[in-house]
């Protein structure tokens, strides 16, 4: 089954979130300290990923154009509106914003090589080992995130399943049409661009900044476009 690894990944995120909800009732002081600890860990994760770029100009261009695109689309406010609507439906007004949990978890779970390579392995070879390993990691991560970010983490399972599922379903075509060199370059620069976004999330969790991270998300699409153009026209920056 092509989508086995992807579906298991989504289920693990949901299970982790539900377990995190059980642990959610912890003292506020403890919750604040845990939030800061998670923020620090997220910053380090973002830095590690952000420094993987082989051409940082691509990252800068992608973030700048992606930010402009995201602000034009007003993604952050739309996600907040959706989060507020969900809060009224599931009665979680005392929790951290659902949109914050959703965006934070989505970036952490989607950005990186494991999601792409694992989905390609599932689609081409029927090998789900990478995604099953990722599922375990994401499950534990969602548990930890939920203790401070709330139920919004669970909704990240939707983009994870869609993103990895589409790659898995079209893996054969991607493998045939996209040169390995181009795919490798995209994964590296996408990871780096996403890492900067994750770094920004860490700063937000620490309360240092209030960066509208959701409005940076189109940068992931811009990365693919920029890398594709560079490869197609043999441009080297």
Automatic annotation (TrEMBL):
The protein, known as: DUF554 family protein
Keywords carried by this UniProt record: Membrane, Transmembrane, Transmembrane helix
Pfam families linked to this entry: DUF554
The UniProt record lists the keyword Transmembrane: yes
Organism phylogeny: Bacteria, Bacillati, Bacillota, Bacilli, Bacillales
InterPro entries: DUF554
Record flagged with keyword Membrane: yes
Transmembrane stretches, start-end: 6-24, 33-50, 56-75, 96-120, 140-171, 183-207, 213-236
């Amino acid at each position: 089954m092509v989508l086995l690894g992807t579906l298991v990944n989504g289920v693990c995120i949901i299970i982790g979130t539900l377990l995190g909800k059980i642990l959610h009732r912890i003292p506020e002081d403890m919750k604040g300290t845990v939030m800061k600890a998670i923020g620090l860990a997220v910053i380090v994760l973002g830095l590690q990923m952000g420094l993987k770029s082989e051409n940082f100009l691509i990252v800068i261009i992608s973030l700048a154009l992606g930010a402009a695109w995201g602000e034009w689309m007003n993604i952050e406010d739309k996600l907040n509106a959706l989060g507020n609507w969900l809060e009224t439906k599931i009665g979680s007004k005392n929790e951290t914003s659902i949109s914050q949990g959703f965006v934070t978890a989505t970036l952490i779970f989607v950005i990186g090589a494991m999601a792409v390579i694992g989905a390609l392995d599932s689609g081409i070879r029927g090998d789900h080992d990478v995604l099953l390993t990722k599922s375990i990691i994401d499950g534990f991560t969602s548990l930890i995130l939920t203790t401070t970010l709330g139920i919004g983490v669970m909704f990240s399972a939707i983009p994870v399943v869609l993103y990895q599922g589409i790659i898995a379903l079209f893996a054969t075509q991607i493998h045939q049409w996209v040169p390995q060199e181009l795919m490798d370059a995209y994964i590296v620069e996408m990871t780096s661009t996403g890492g900067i976004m994750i770094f920004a999330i860490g700063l937000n969790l620490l309360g240092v900044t209030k960066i509208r991270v959701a409005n940076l998300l189109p940068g992931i699409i811009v990365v693919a476009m920029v890398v594709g153009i560079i490869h197609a026209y043999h441009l080297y920056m």
